[in-house]
Predict the structure.
Amino acid sequence: MLFCIVLCACNSSSVEKDGIIQPAFNLIERQIGERATGIQLEEIALENGKETFEVEAKNGILTLRGSSSVAICYAFHTYLREACSAMKTWSGERMELPETWPDFVLKKQTTPYEYRYFLNVCTFGYTTPYWDWERWEKEIDWMALRGVNMPLATVASEAIAERVWLKMGLKEEDIRAFFTGPAHLPWHRMGNLNGWDGPLTDGWQKEQIKLQHKILNRMRELGMEPIAPAFAGFVPTAFAERHPEIQFKHLEWGGFDEKYNAYVLPPETPYFKEIGKLFIEEWEKEFGKNTYYLSDSFNEMKLPVAEGDDDGKHKLLAQYGESIYHSIAAGNPDAVWVTQGWTFGYQHDFWDKASLQALLSRVPDDKMIIIDLGNDYPKWVWGTEQTWKNHDGFYGKKWIFSYVPNFGGKTPMTGDLQMYATSSAEALHSANAGNLVGFGSAPEGLENNEVVYELLADMGWTGEIWILGCLFIVRLVTAVARRLWIVLGSSSGKQFIARCILTPGLLGKRLSRILAESVSWT
């Protein structure tokens, strides 16, 4: 009886718009076609307030239960991988499914995290700037299958910003001159770069609006909580010239000529709140209500304060934190300010305890989330403790433990897999973790190193510390795959290479030799 009821629900147009079963069914159907109609999908309650799933198969009947659409989709991905040796990845797929669903002993799992975050501001430059809806649809499916429920969603930021600047009295040509070309927009949004390879066209702006509607509709259909863009204080040159009474701060980044550098509003000017409020209002007028808004004012840039003036520095940081938060709340009182923690580790000499505490001091604890972006970088690049440790779990603010497994869109086989399998769980159980509410990964470039992201997807659903010696190997399909895994795990799987190009050398020769021998292994 239950089987029939669930199937009817999956194919009924009367299903509630916000129900979790229909979106999960639709996604599974996109993966395996009509086979999806033979799967039982059931909604279950949260476990101690956290998302949970169950999966089991008996006598050819596969049952997936979850507390959300994403939980059901992750249950499906788990079953495909562990019971059917099947998977869809960025670089290919193995989806030769058995005619009858293999038996699978009941598996129950509950995530310890409220949020599973994915994407990086830079991903929208290194990988996605020219994606169409067909490619975005596949990526959102990929996210749901790996349990992501908090993706970054910054498409069409400039189309909204243009409307704001028009209301502030600027001319269209001056606004367009402010924007970079599509591939450089992430650095424009973070205030690093203006005008480079621009301007944007009418067609670009209109198509990005249409695309963002499709992206957000699908994310929301699956119950995800997208993070939208907010105003961070950066203004066009034309606005600065229009207001000579304001003492704008001219920041520097990357060695670019000053004409490409950002002007940022001082925090005490009423324009900060006015423009930030307009940005939220225009965004929500176009795309609907949202809760989470990203704003980063000092990415890889120092404030122009006098050397040694700690009191002045801390006062200015407190004012900026207050102004950014209030500019968002003015447009939506229920909104939560999200900020990247990358720069707190990248510029750890500047962001000492007192400085970060100053930035956060005037923002309510429940109205801010810090994404501690690059927990793989302290060990391998910065030579420091992880940022959350240096800052006592971020002084009561909510935060998300994250990695940046890809830097600059590069494609070497790299990644500290043992760190990925342990470090987040260690943070979760630390007495110094503060208000840790999420886990995520923020790759600057996609479509590489699939094994890293499969591992990270699983870490978003466990608080256990895993030992890689027995991880994944049992899930691999053939003996040759197991042998390849052992080689990778003992070489590039123990490295984290951020900036250099890896030449495989001996590793490549070993892999080639094993593949050449695969006939005798399969």
In short: Confidence is low (pLDDT under 50) at residues 1-17, 469-477, 497-512, 514-522.
